[in-house]
Amino acid sequence: MIVNEDRFFLSHRKGIALAAQKAGWNVTVVCKDTGRRNEVEALGLKVLELPINPTGMNLGQEFRTFCFLYTLYKKNRDAVIHHVGLKNILWGGLAAKLVGVYCVVNAVSGLGAIFSKGKMGLLAKGVLYVMRFSNRRKNVKVIFQNNEDRALFLQCRVIEEAQAEFIKGSGVDLNEFKYVPEPDSETLKVVFTARMVKEKGVIELIEAAERLRKAYEGLVEFWLCGRLAANADAVSKEELESRCDGKYIKWLNFQEDTRSILEQSHIMAFPSYYREGVPKSLIDAGAVGRPIVTTNSIGCKDVVDDGVNGFLVPIKDSKALAEKLRILIEDKDLRIKMGRASREKAEKEFSLADVVRKHLEIYNRLVGG
Asked: Assuming Cys at both sites, which of 20, 236, 275, 348 could form a disulfide with 111, CB separation 3.0 to 4.6 Å?
């Protein structure tokens, strides 16, 4: 299983790897060590260090990643190789094609910044061209989390129809993330959990909070939970600290225990216009039973039925975001009703058990083929 970083593996793919291990597979996780490798190894999984810059585009670094995977796959042609994320699909898929790996699974967990700009540029077209070369062959399956990504791959002839698989998101452990009624606290908490990247809608959320400050300062708190990012579209530490006063708008940096944060919250706000797969932060919030305000954009809209378990707003529209947040802030009964609907949707559509089962079925079909 090829994943950018150990922390992403632990939050998004651990359940699949452990279930495969339990089913008799010998599982090796190939990822960058961000300081949590020991946690992966403590699960009984073998770990190899992946030389990768998850957000960079330095040609030398990219070539190093490709060469590492090429060498690794030459020694493991008979393995099932599971790439997670666009960069790993790009370089890993190419290496697997050239080496002749028999069984490949490519999991598209969002297409990211280069596909978020509307009209495709040369870089996006080049990525699709390389993936078309590496994907269109026997015993390659591609997993999509949303219909738009699937349609793009089919339209650009990256894959054939029979290669496409659909699994809606990374899933959530419904026994761990249980429904919890909103807290009876003096201040109502609106929570955002994601990397501090502009395309995740951080600035729009801060602007929406400022629109509501006069009415709700002292009554509402906005919690921004997420680490700083290294890519060009990141929000700087200086900008966050200048925009967050630590009382009404708080930047809490990365929070390991997201479940606890969600249980303390009343509303999840996620105004992303990034090319998401299906955001796990929204799936987790739904499982805990929180109403969600997010954008009517790819991936995000798959978690919210507008007016049922939350609201969908246009991208980059802090005014519309503020108005929907105002409705939920003012109406406790609506928050509770929508929160219960979020939990019901999570149970029907986002169970980790279903995600795990579907992955194991794909592995077994590939080996059988």
From this structure: 275
